[in-house]
Amino acid sequence: MIRIQTFGCLSVRGGDGASLAGAAAQPRRMAILALLARAGERGVSREKVLALLWPDADDERGSRTLSQALYALRKDLIAEDAIGGAKELHFDPALVTTDVSEFAAAVSRGDDARAAELYAGPFLDGFHVSGAEEFTRWVDRERAALAQDHARVVESLARSAFASGNVAASVGWWRRLAALEPLNARVAVGLMEALTASGDRAGAIRHARVYELLVEQELELPPDKEVTALAERLRQHSDETPQPALAAARIGSTAPAAVPHDQPPAAVAEEIQRVVVEPTAHIGDVELASPSPDTTDVASVVPARRATPRSWIVAGLAAGLAAVWLLASQGHTRRIGASSPNESPAVVAVGRIVSYGTDSSVRALAEPVADLLATSLARSPGLRVVSAGRMLELMRRAHTPDDTGAAGFVEAARQAGATEIIDGTLYARPRGTLRLDLRRVDLATGAINGVHSIEGEDLFTLVDSGTASLLAVHGGAAPRESIAGVTTRSVAAYSFYVEGMQMLADGDVPAAERLFGAALREDSTFALAAYYYGRTSSLRVPMMNRLNRALRLSATATDRERLMIRAGWAWLVTSPELGVLADSLVMRYPQETEGHLYAGLARFQDGEFMAAIGPLQRVVAMDSLSFTHADSVAGCDACTAMFQIVFAYDAADSLAAAEREARRWTRLQPQIAASWIALWDVLERAGKFADAVQLTEHVATLDRDPVAAMTRASTHALRTGDLTTGERLVRAGLQAGNVAVQREAYWQLILSLRYQGRLTEAIAVARRYRVFATPLDSGIVGAVSPSAAPLAVSLDEAGRYREAAALFDSISHWRAPDEAPSGRARERAWRLTHKARALASVGDTVAVAALADTIAAVGARSGHVRDQRLNRYVRGLVLLARNDLVGAEAAFRSAIFSWPAGYTRMNYDLALVLLRLGRPRDAIAVLQPALRGKVDASNYYVTHTQVHALLAQAWDALGRPDSAAAHHAWVARAWEHGDAQYAQQAEAARRHARLGP
């Protein structure tokens, strides 16, 4: 029986599953088969075939050409009667079956499940016949009609599953439909309702936001009112009632329940303490540095050395869909072609490929063959393939670098969840050809499932033939395009790339960067080499340039690589599409780590800190062997995951859980500095200063970076109030010969002077720092570099509000070279918020109200929920100026992203409102987390001295002078030598604390 597939690609296979040759090399002959397949039993006239494929040929020549083509096709099909008819051509259904005819029949009889299973992709996707414009238009019409039928089928399945109570299946079908029709409001509402019913209200709200952004960007129209209304109802409901964790929480997931962002800090901590998370996760990518020096609150793990004036902190983190965890854990396999959301395909790994003989050039091809074969097989939509990078990672973690025996590959494949491993031998043949013998081994039983022998003239044709042969036994069609077309056509480039991946797995990032650069010099269009070339850069500008290049090149890469590149880029620029890309990676490639990582990062960006834990823990579980052998965080996904887990607990204001995870990390990986630095940071935040001091010496033996050492010492001095010692230390740093140390010393000195209320000096040092930092010129008239931010903050605290507002406005126009729109939106919304706060201080409510609208529009283009909520804070400032204290409180609370790690100016202003409302206890509850955040990043805009001063006031208002005294004493010491206004406050604090002169 001959099988013709038209969905997803056009292919013809014989009864043994092998591709048929001959006609496949002739696009017009293949087009004839496509026309006959679509026509079905009714057939298609010769005149129509001629009009579509040979419109310019005269009657005689056209008829002769068609007859010759039909003769060649019948010969290639090895069945003279396969194509019958004189005037009306048609297939003999006893000899030929087609997916499109079966699809049409299933639709007609209402068999939606079968129709959905048959639809493997758009009709004749990627198939083109040059010079046949009429045929192209016919394909477009038929493709659209079939796509509509498929959409109706999927929607029917989604609604039927929902009606029958199978909410998980309904979500799966709605997601499939939303990927096809992302701008369809009806589909958006259907998916949102299914997600809500499954317990994932946050996911429903997130999808509404993605839909709104896509409609705005693609159609330049407002979103459908039904979608926005439903999203608003869900937001209001989430404010009233704590949301269940996710759908999987009801099927045994260990993911903790999400905590509403506006829940009081004490209640948040109490909720978190009830959660115990088992270590069940993993992380996928080397961490990328954030564009902003002070807009986020996550310390970067990679690279270890900071190349910027201070912590150029990483943006968001977080958690993926628990329903996907269930899918990832399913152990059964299926054949390609099954497409039900609840089915799982086979998982294949490519193991050891060895060369036979003494030919050194052939030996050099063995590893590229394995890598390319895994990449090529992964293009089949129904077959899960463990990537070569994942296999290499597991091999390097589980064994010594020299242990490349077959047993090591088998164990790595099992660790990756594979059900079958493919190994083989590569030979050089006479006349320069290559032969590859492949063997498929069942990992459960050790039985040999089959043997394949392939020959080819070069590396890429060999891999193409091997792919077709292997996919045939799994019931899949070979990719239409050669692997060379979606990777590289240069053997040298691929060899450099494979070697670079090995260096990255070994933690040698500089060597990996050189090799990826060499691969690009051999082939400048090699997308994956460009991506890793960007990932291994330690400087933001070249990193962005390289990743933007990789993003452009990804259009021609394989599906997995395209998703991975786009997700990595989306995270770096906080794009709203990160969550969608992460979900796609997890759904399609659950055995790989990247999807789980990016799902976690997307959840963190949505402010769902506790929901971030599950996917990150899954990364740790998938890559747990890394802890044993990695001596750095480079190339160690589990190491990065542990860092993100610790910070997720930090952001949720659960320092006890953060300390527990940090200590766990030090036990798992005692040899690297990152684990101990994470623990030191948690101890500092928790106020366990004696424990932190004891740890400092040990950290110094592992991390010898003088910039990081000075920053830790300065941070400790700021937290403990030992400001004199801290200032002396950073002034010594100004005398260092190391420019990086000097730059950091300037930053820390400005911070120390602000803590001491010495704003006149802080302004002077900030002006010097602005020149010393030598910022890049953005080329925009009137734009000022972010290096001016310390000056703007110091002017604001000195009461020079108009100057500060003007400077923040100028900074908001600056943008980094090649910055993505979402990244620019993130920076601009952040800077304009500071401008609005400065203007609110002089009572310019008209300008502040206008800025709120601007910030709302700009922030909506960022994928980070903090940016999307900033406008609420600004509106709260307007309400506060109008003395609407109740309205201001509600606005400030709704703007909070994280109590200790969001934007602590919100904590401060909310506390002021609560004090005016006569609620000092509530004011204390929102102020205390501000002392548990960093002294830098988004906490930079309120000093601890200011927080202590307001806490002293709140405790006094509560009638607790003893509790207030400690805060008064802190303020008295800090502001003792400050400018006049601060010195006066220090004297008043001294009297309250009953301190001597």
Notes on the structure:
The structure is a single chain. With 997 residues, the chain is mainly α. Among the domains are: 2-146, no CATH class; 343-474, Rossmann fold (3-Layer(aba) Sandwich); 896-997, Serine Threonine Protein Phosphatase 5, Tetratricopeptide repeat, CATH 1.25.40. Helix content is 60%, strand content 6%. It has 46 helices and eleven strands. Helix 4 packs antiparallel against helix 5.
In round numbers, the mean pLDDT is 81
Strand content: 5-15%
First-to-last CA distance: 100 Å
Report the sheet with the most strands, covering strand number, pairing sense and barrel closure: 5 strands, mixed
Uncertain parts: 240-344
Q: Report the structural category.
A: mainly alpha
Q: What is the number of helical segments per DSSP (H or I, 4+ residues)?
A: 46
How many extended strands? 11
Provide a short characterization of the protein structure.
The protein is mostly helical and 997 residues long. The chain is built from 46 helices and 11 strands.
List keywords for this structure.
3-stranded mixed beta sheet; 997 residues; mainly alpha; Rossmann fold; Serine Threonine Protein Phosphatase 5, Tetratricopeptide repeat
Q: What's the SSE blueprint?
A:
Blueprint (H helix, E strand, L loop, with lengths): L1 E4 L5 E3 L13 H13 L4 E2 H8 L5 H18 L6 E2 L3 E4 L4 E3 H11 L2 H7 L14 H31 L3 H14 L4 H13 L3 H19 L5 H16 L24 H9 L48 H8 L17 E10 L3 H4 L2 H12 L6 E3 L1 H11 L7 H10 L4 E9 L5 E9 L5 E9 L2 H15 L9 H4 L4 H15 L3 H14 L4 H9 L4 H14 L5 H14 L5 H11 L5 H12 L3 H14 L3 H4 L7 H15 L3 H14 L4 H13 L3 H14 L3 H15 L2 H12 L4 H17 L3 H14 L16 H9 L3 H12 L8 H21 L3 H15 L5 H17 L3 H11 L8 H13 L3 H12 L12 H14 L3 H14 L5 H14 L4
Parallel strand pairs: 1-6, 7-8, 7-9
Antiparallel strand pairs: 1-2, 3-5, 4-5, 9-10, 10-11
